[in-house]
Amino acid sequence: MKKFLYVSSMLVLLLVIRPASANVSLLIFGDSLSAGYGISQADTWVAEIERRWQQDYPEYSIINASISGDTTQGGLRRLAEVVERHQPDAVFIELGGNDGLRGFQIDSIRSNLSEMIHYLQNRDIHVALSQIEIPPNMGPRYTDQFRSLFADIAEQHNIELVPFFMLDIATDPGLMQSDGIHPNLQAQEAIADIMEPQLRAIAEQAASE
């Protein structure tokens, strides 16, 4: 009887501590800024965070499902297959930049992002959205509408809006490729420094849900 009570107590203890120690996977669902355009996959800021987590936070894993050139429409088309393959606990959406640079309709961008978020939330997957900024090439009206779009979506769906990690990077020519759009190899560690604590907080939130 005592042995049974001991085993039962241990099972209860394991159930109590499991959420804190359970493995949590975070999927990065973005475009070239996260995919590492022009550099090796092993050198991207996502890969750098993965190395840090393997050493310091092995309970968390990060998956990079970003594709250079992707749009919100492309992301929406491929989301179900990516989720099915990786079964993430949380997803960080970093899409919209290519839409904005091409002047896509704001309502279309909004609809695509909202559908992605809705799909993930219906599957109890924690979602966070990146703010995206674009150059003012499309004019002040479009640029302002594009900028405010992301905060509106985050508020509508009650998800976290993560500040755009390129804000401080893009103003430093030493951290940018010659096209003036993509971060270079030297920028990847700096981006990892910016994003690691924010993504870890997202993983922690997913673990607690």
TrEMBL record:
Report the domain of life of the source organism: Bacteria
A molecular function (GO) held by this record is: phosphatidylcholine lysophospholipase activity
Keywords for this protein: Signal
SUPFAM superfamilies associated with the record: SGNH hydrolase (SSF52266)
- Known PANTHER family for this protein? THIOESTERASE 1/PROTEASE 1/LYSOPHOSPHOLIPASE L1, THIOESTERASE 1_PROTEASE 1_LYSOPHOSPHOLIPASE L1
Signal sequence span is 1-22
InterPro entries attached here?
Answer: Ester_Hydrolysis_Enzymes (IPR051532), Lipase_GDSL_AS (IPR008265), SGNH_hydro (IPR013830), SGNH_hydro_sf (IPR036514)
Q: Where is the SGNH hydrolase-type esterase domain?
A: 28-189
Q: Which Pfam families does the record cross-reference, listed alphabetically? A: Lipase_GDSL_2
Q: Which Gene3D superfamilies match?
A: SGNH hydrolase
Q: What is this protein called?
A: Arylesterase
- Would you kindly state one Gene Ontology biological process term found in this protein's UniProt entry? lipid metabolic process
